[in-house]
């Protein structure tokens, strides 16, 4: 196979049981894509659903809201719920994780429980949400990682006490790809009367996630990465009892139970998680996400996990054999499809890959590769060969 820039891989791609889906992702026609953990590749089904939205807009304008588009919102809530073992009534839609976190953060009472516990490996938007509330007396506790790969649950548990309102952390750490035992984290939080919020942006779609089994209170993820829906749409799971009880201190008209009454003198919230919704959602993002979910639901996350884990373990083994020292969890079962390869100048190495038509990403001190079910062995073999070659070759 010859990539852009004339780079020859010199290897025969090894097929797997999901390789038939590869042809539905046009980027592979002239690129090697190994960056799903930043942005999922655009599939033909997502493109067609996006066109469906544009066609309705063109043909019907705002009239489409009252049947077709309204139904699409309900459909997406239900399909998101199915992926994580929740009910549709426990799902709120938001444009970003930051907005979803804001709705949760503004629903908590910090009077007697001013502490929020996070870890040093979580995506920083999680910490920023509560750092912004320091002037209101909120205390952020950051639990450090001893190895920059994972954080022992015991260390999180030690940070939680009767003054803790919330433990907010990741299912999969974006910094290492390590999978965290979120059930154990939830247990540590609940043992002290605290709530547990999980940022699952890097897990849902590639790693099975069941909110009932995990016993978490909140969980958020979305279309950008492993759910193949693109930017602009995420979901917030709120456990049923909390969804009916908590009242966010921020509001929008989609959180109003009778939003078309247009009543400015009273705020009557939905009786379910929709009370955490704010403004009008992006219909374009809704539709592309519906198309992306077609792949996830048709294949099934357990099958995706099996195939992707096999690709990841082969990538790690080949990287080690080539002299790289991947920063990954010690046990295969704790590793997701995110592989961090140490590099002195990762941005330069990513540009070096791009010249050869290989798309990856850089994070501090590392080149990040992330195979998914549409990848094949040849993809990361080519990337490793290119990374091993000096710049300019």
Sum up the structure in keywords.
Aspartate Aminotransferase, domain 1, 2 domains, alpha/beta, disordered N terminus, 13% strand
The portion of residues assigned to helices is 25-40%
Question: What would the principal axes of the Cα set say about the shape?
Answer: globular
- Here the CATH topology of the largest domain equals Aspartate Aminotransferase, domain 2
Q: Describe the sheet with the most strands.
A: 7 strands, mixed
The overall strand count is 12
User: What integer value in Å does the Rg equal?
Assistant: 22 Å
List the total number of helices. Answer: 12
User: β content, as a range?
Assistant: 5-15%
- Could you tell me how far the N terminus lies from the C terminus, measured between alpha carbons in angstroms? 18 Å
Ranges with pLDDT <50 over ≥5 residues? 1-13
CATH homologous superfamily descriptor of the largest domain: Type I PLP-dependent aspartate aminotransferase-like (Major domain)
Structural class: alpha/beta
- In the CATH classification, which architecture of the largest domain applies? 3-Layer(aba) Sandwich
**Domains, number:** 2
The run of helices and strands is: EHHEHEHEHEHEHEEHHHEHEEEH
Strand order of the largest sheet: 2-8-7-6-5-3-4
